[in-house]
Structures are given as C-alpha cells and as structure tokens.
Amino acid sequence: MHILGWIVAIAAMAIGATVIVLLVRTATYVDPYHLRVAEAGYVHKEAEVNGVKLSYAEGPDNGPPLVLLHAQFLDWFSYSRVLPQLAKSFHVFDVDYPGHGTTKTPPDYPMTADRIGADLGDFIEQEIGEPVFISGNSSGGLLATWLAANRPALIKAAVLEDPPLFSSEYPRIKQTIAYRAFATSYKAAQEKAPDFLIYWIHGNATFFRNNVGPGTPFLLEQAIRLFRQFNAGKPAEIGLLPNNTVRMLLRGLDQYDPRFGAAFYDGSWNQGFDHAQALAKITCPVLLLHANYTVLPDGTLNGAMSDEDAVHAMSLLNNGTFEKIDASHVINLDKPEAFTASLEKFLLKK
C-alpha cells in the first residue's frame, strides 16, 4: 500500500476509535455529584399537596430548615454542587416546583405564581411544620418573593438569586432574551410536542451553537437518543458537555412541562402577582444576589435583571441586603463556593 494509503487507514481507525470512546462515555455517564449528594445524606421523597405530587430531596436535620427553589428549566439536582456544603448547617428541602423534574400536576393545573406559591406554602406547612429560610434562583426567586410577601409567617429570611424582577412582567418581558425561549415553550404547549427536549434543541439551535459550538444541535440530539437507549427513564445527562449549566439545562428540559414557560410568554404566570407590590410587602430579611448581564445592541436584556432593576428592587425592600456576584445567571452552578459563602453568611447570622 502507498504510504498515503497507510496514513489514511490509520487516521480512519483513530477517528473510529475516538467515536467509539465518545459513544461509550455518552451512554455510561453518571454525574459524580449523585454519589456526593447521597453521601451527604439526601433522600428523594414525594409529598401530595392539593392534588400535586411534589418531588423533592431532603437532607439530614443539621440545622434550621432551608427550602431551595431552582431556576426555570432545571430541577432539584441543579443544586448538587452546593447541597453537600449546605447539609452541614441546614435541614435542606430541595423542591421540584410544578412544571419541573418529577413533580406531577393535574392536566388543567394553572401555571401561575399565585397557584404554585400557594401550593409551596402548603408544602412547607404540611411537610416541614415550622418557618423556614428560603432561597430561589430565577423563577424560583420569584416564587420565594411570592412566599415572603404572601405567607410571611412561613418565611424567616429569603435569598433571591438573580430573580427576573420586573423584567419578566408583561409586556416588558418582550424586551428580554428569555422571551425568545418562552416562545418555544408556548409553541410546544400549543402543538403538544411529545419530546420537548428535542423540540427545544431544534427551536433554539442558535443558542447551542453560540454557547457550546458549531454542529452542536445535531450532535446533542444524537447523544441524547443514545443516552436514552442505555438509560431508560432517566433524564438526559450528557457528560461530554463541559459547561455545568448547559448540562443541567438539558437534564431539566428532559422533564420540563412547556406550559410553565408558555405562561411567561403570554403573561398569565404573573397574573395577580405584581413584583413591586410584593417586594414592598416583605418584612423578613432579604438578600438579593445580582449576577452578570448584558444588553444587546437592540436593547434586549440578556440576563435576569439590569442594574436599574436591582436598584428598584432594593428601594422597595424593608430589610434588604444587596450583593453583586461575578457569575452567570445560575450562580450556584457557576460559582458554588461564592453562593454558599453568601447564603451562609446571611442566613446563619439571623
């Protein structure tokens, strides 16, 4: 064989071996934090509340109760990087609120802050039975705001982790990058898409190309299908993705009810829930964590809150503390040490 032929043959074998290795890694990947969270004493549980089967992870009773509410599109496991540390000082209840994770809701369940907030309040009363600290990220931060404002006897102090205060209210939400994502949720809900994760990848191909790399949408779809083939019933965890937030996003989207995002798209999620009025009602101590954001050339907000939003929120709080953190939107994933340090410093002094 000509020397060039040998080179081509060897290269083909090397590429083939690389592909096989990647395929095996995709099919057999297990996030190492599953073991770390279990070793920290967390147990998965379910609770029936007002016809909703709420899924949550409960840690050991090592301190005051702390309820965690993840960001939209994610699930309880997105807090995995901070759960072991938090278990040392708190009795953690990490909840999949309606529309997320393995929490189950009736088909006609209203995806509104009022209904979800009320059910979470009843969960605290029923399963915890005493006032709690609460920390919520993104939409979880809005729900933490709702609870602190409307169920004050249940909330001792709240940490609002980069919540989209004001920016997610209608019609201003139309000037945010999130609105484009919610459009996908709205269409999927209208079309009753049977596989939302694949539907999402197709509808947001540009997001994945920009945040992961060229060709990502096609490769992701193949990796997801392969993972599912070898891990029936488990949410997609694609270990080849280097970014924790993107990897957790795929896991969350594999369990997500698009009706939740659709309610943000059409404005119904905030019906009856005025952010400014809610903030002004809160009497407990509140820590507002503000992550990084940008404003696109056309004025679109690429993030949860602008500096002006944060200033406005602080002006309304009766007992507020502000902290700017150099991190992306899901601070607890991007900068877990900074998140736990801020949360512990604020809550454990109370």
Q: Radius of gyration over alpha carbons?
A: 21 Å
Assess the beta-strand content as a share of residues: 5-15%
SSE string, helices as H and strands as E: HHEEEHEHEHEHHHHHHHEEEHEHH
The strands making up the biggest β-sheet line up spatially as 1-2-4-3-5-6-7-10
Number of helices: 15
Average pLDDT: 92
* Number of β-strand runs: 10
- Low-pLDDT segments: 4-20
Biggest sheet details: 8 strands, mixed
Give the end-to-end Cα distance, rounded to a whole number of Å.
Answer: 77 Å
Describe the protein in words.
- It is a single chain.
- A hairpin with a 2-residue loop joins strand 1 and strand 2.
- The protein is an alpha/beta fold.
- The longest helix has 26 residues.
- The strands form two sheets. Strands 1-2-4-3-5-6-7-10 form an eight-stranded mixed β-sheet, sandwiched between helices.
- The N and C termini lie far apart (77 Å).
Observed structural traits:
about 350 residues, two-stranded antiparallel sheet, about 15% strand
Describe the structure concisely for a colleague.
The chain has 350 residues and is α/β, with parallel strands linked by helices. 46% of the residues lie in helices and 15% in strands.
